[in-house]
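debug: dumping io for the single-chain case to check the tokenizer round-trip. Nothing else runs in this session.
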Amino acid sequence: MVDIILSVIIGLIIGYLFGWIITKKLIVAKMGVAKESVERIIIDAKKEAESKKKEALLEAKDEIHRMRSEADRENKERRNEITRQERRLVQKEETLDRKLEGLEQKENNLSQKEHDIYIQKQKIDELNARMQQELERISGISAGEAKDMLLRQVEEEIKHETAILIRDIEAQAKEEADKKAREIVTTAIQRVAADHVAETTVSVVPLPNDEMKGRIIGREGRNIRTLETLTGIDLIIDDTPEAVILSGFDPVRREVARVALEKLIQDGRIHPARIEEMVEKAQKEVDQRIRDAGEQATFETGVHGLHPELVRLLGRLKFRTSYGQNVLQHSIEVAHLAGVMAAELGADVVLAKRAGLLHDIGKAIDHEMEGPHVTIGADVARKYKEAYEVVHAIAAHHGDIETETVEAALVQASDAVSAARPGARRETLESYIKRLQKLEEITESFEGVEKSFAIQAGREIRVMVKPDKVTDVIAERLVRDIAKKIEEELEYPGQIKVVVIRETRVTEYAK
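debug: decoded output
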């Protein structure tokens, strides 16, 4: 049994050794095969590399050859182009040489002609001198005297023709200017006509019944005194049925008093404390209406960017009148008129409308400050940083200073048009008649005036002169003198047309 086990163990050992030997031989054999494969791969790679190297060299040689051929071709073309240009330059040089030769020949010919002309001129001058001497001998006057005589004659003719031409040009220019001005003003008036409400220095408050008068007066007059003290307006309670009259020159205060009184009448409780409360409410309401009116005016005219205080002052003009014409409506109309005329003339429309709207701004506070409304308005506009052109237009709109801009002249004209058009303003019959009489007195104070007639509501004065004492030339001077004296001595809205009529009549009777 032990022998068998030993035999098996020995057999296994021998088998293992035999297997190990065989495996080693196989591994050695495989390594040899792999080595041979690697060597073959290396050899093949070297061969392939050599082949690609040769191909790359061949391609490089081909590219070099191609580039060399292109360079040779381009060089050849450039040499050909240079050759052609050289030939053209040579041809141009030859042409220039020929032209220079021709110019030299022409220059020689011109020199010869100039010499011949100079000789001929000397001969002509000699002939002219002899002819002048002969003419002086025949006429008996020298050349200088003849020249002076001719110049005087020509000068007289030129003066006469120039005077005629100037007269015709002036007449034509005046006619065209008048026509254009009429068209512009007419267009502006037609497009911007506005209604005006005539207002006075009194306001009438209706009452529900006459018993309300006693309640307004109050015990021992305390209610009416309180209302008058708080508003600064006089209350007139007379026999007028169911009405109370408010009198005062300050339209804003009068409006506050009217609103407060209407609120008190509607409320029914009338006593000093209630009056004070209602006056305060009325003041706030009127202030709001003033601001609304100013903003509405700026919106209506398209004038923006005004200082809030200027807008408030514009609203105050709603309660200000001039000859019955509402000043705010007048200012709006002037702004529109100035804007339309500025557009027709190609001037600054925005500037003209702004200056037109603000031209009477001084009337909003002229009762609070000393001086004319023109100066006050210009100062107020300057205070609130308005442009110089706007301030100047305000200061010049009544002719106190000379206008420097077209817009200022348009504002001045628009103000006159708005104030002078029929229905814009009203005045009392007495002052109207006095103005017409004064107008006729001024015209009849001149020598040679036979009679004068104020027509067109005082906007035109027709003057009849004595034909035996006033010639046409004197009549032209007389009409200017009359207009100047009217401007100096008479105050009037708008403008007055002066017409001098010189008429000669010859009468004979057949018997």
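debug: round-trip ok. The chain is about 70% helix and 5% strand.
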